[in-house]
Amino acid sequence: MFVCMRVVFSQRCRQPRHCRPRSRLETMAHSHDIPDGHLGPKLLASIAINVMILTAQLVGGVLAGSIALIADALHNLTDVAALCLSYGAFRVSKRRATPRYTFAFQRAEVLAAVLNAASLIAVSTFVSVEAFKRLASPEPVAGGLVMAFAAFGMVANAAAAWLLRGHGSNLNIRSAVLHLVSDSVASFGVLVAGALMYWFGWFVVDPIVSLVLAAWMIKESVGLLRTAANILMQGVPDGVELALVESAIREHPLVEDVHDLHVWAMTSSNIVLSAHVVLPCELDETERLKTVKQLKSMLHDQFAVEHATMETETTGVCTGMSCDKE
Questions:
Q1: pLDDT, tens digit, for every residue of 67-82?
Q2: Report field, pTM of the whole predicted structure over 0.85
Q3: What CATH number is associated with residue 304?
């Protein structure tokens, strides 16, 4: 009887000094590290910017008597916390794999994203409560000061978000950018409210703007939590259809069947797959290895699968614990 083989490829160069450079696709497909050497300094710079915004807007909110500006400052406090968490997760995710954590610490980005989103929801809830109180009893607000400090926060947050451009595929950085962009938009709303209060004396605008911004922040945060939960629950990644993956594998001329197919994500940018593939009995070991290599290449190109483990079998012979259940 033909003995089934577990086949795992590694395309690392055996002669680092002389072999051809690995392509970006090869690097993505077989590396557990996130190649992002410039991200750390950018996160530190964004943290420094947000500390300045926080200090300025807290002082401005107290001086102006604006709940919206104070809320914006508290939002920036969560930005500082979010960016610190993101920086910590970035550092941890660069650590090498260990015998206990064989995929290294890449999911630190997902945990950081959950904490970031949760903190944003908490702050939004606080802002909503304070806004409802102010809505019931509007108070005079120094609109000119509100406009000045809100404009500063809007520009500074936009600059911090711009520093992190190009890293949106990382869920951890995506959550941090969400904080920055949402606060920049929030500052714009506060700026508009300040103008209305300054020119027309419409002080009720202050709590109304606060409520609108709080609702928007909660909506975005819930979406981020859903994405993170899908990764932690090892659900099929967004944008990947399991049926299409199975169909693509079956289309290979030498594949007779495929089962025990699983697709999940280690992180927001690292899709993983495992499957049992049934091949003809007459294929020798070299042909089997060649077929699996072709399947892995196809899966990477069509579905961005970076790490695929495929176990080959022959018709009527199944290996693995799950086979007893089929």
A1: 888 878 877 777 787 7
A2: no
A3: 3.30.70.1350
